[in-house]
Amino acid sequence: MPFEIKSVNDNGCFSGYGSVFGVKDTYSDIVVKGAFTKSLNKWKKNGRLPALLWQHKMDEPIGYYTKMVEDDNGLYLEGQLLIEDDPLARRAHAHMRAKSLSGLSIGYALNDYDYDNEKDAFILKEIDLWEVSVVTFPANDEARIFDVKTALELGKTPSPQDMMKALQHMGLSQSQSESFMLDGYSSLKKQTDNFNERNALNILKSIFN
User: Cys-Cys link to 68, which of 77, 80, 115, 179 (CB 3.0-4.6 A)?
Assistant: First the structure.
């Protein structure tokens, strides 16, 4: 869920929120205050801030962040576009000024979360922030399983957190996802009389293919 850029100056400076606390987004995620604390402290210790990217493309930085802090509202940030040296940054600046491109979206790894049954949402408690991008649209529903697919393609094992979230966002309930993680595919059929084998296979295919 991208958050609106609040201001853009002629010199390429801008400010906004990369994330807002307490808001249930299109992934059914809710970021809570303090989720970025450890990550921001780590960046500060290294004398750096997360990357400023164009549309989450790792090979297309368009500037740098000068400030990034948690306040009572969310992840507040200030950035500088390299409009004098980078044609893509000039393009981004022009669109931001015209408000034809006005979103900010975070790229991260999830270190800790809970699932709240009453809110039907994932409560994101600790986020390892990598970058904040200027974006046109929010990420689509397939982005939830991107980390799992990428790990598998690289011959790595996805984290249990990523795998759980991928399974749930592709249609399995929390209890079905937990059963699959603990005992494998056969546990799903044992768990419920209403288990739809074809649907489950399609879910798993969408993740592993």
Answer: 77
When pLDDT is averaged across residues 160-167 and rounded to a whole number, the result is 68
Phi, psi of 186 (to 5 degrees): -60, -25
Which pLDDT value is given to residue 143? 34
The answer to whether 33 touches 48, Cβ cutoff 8 Å, is no
pLDDT recorded at residue 20 = 87
Q: How far apart are CA 8 and CA 40, in angstroms?
A: 24
Q: Do residues 133 and 58 make contact, with C-beta atoms less than 8 angstroms apart? A: no
Rounded CA-CA distance 47/68 in Å is 12
DSSP for 91-128, written as a single string: HHHHHHHHTSS-EEEEEEEEEEEEEETTTTEEEEEEEE
On the 0-12 / 13-18 / 19+ scale of CB atoms within 10 A, 100 is: exposed
Mean pLDDT, the chain, integer: 79
Look at residue 144 in the predicted model and tell me its pLDDT.
35
- Determine how β-strand 3-8 pairs with β-strand 13-20: antiparallel
Per-residue model confidence (pLDDT) at position 180: 73
Q: What is the enclosing helix (H) or strand (E) of 152?
A: helix 146-153
Token pair recorded at residue 193: 């009389």
Return d(Cα 165, Cα 27) in angstroms, integer.
10
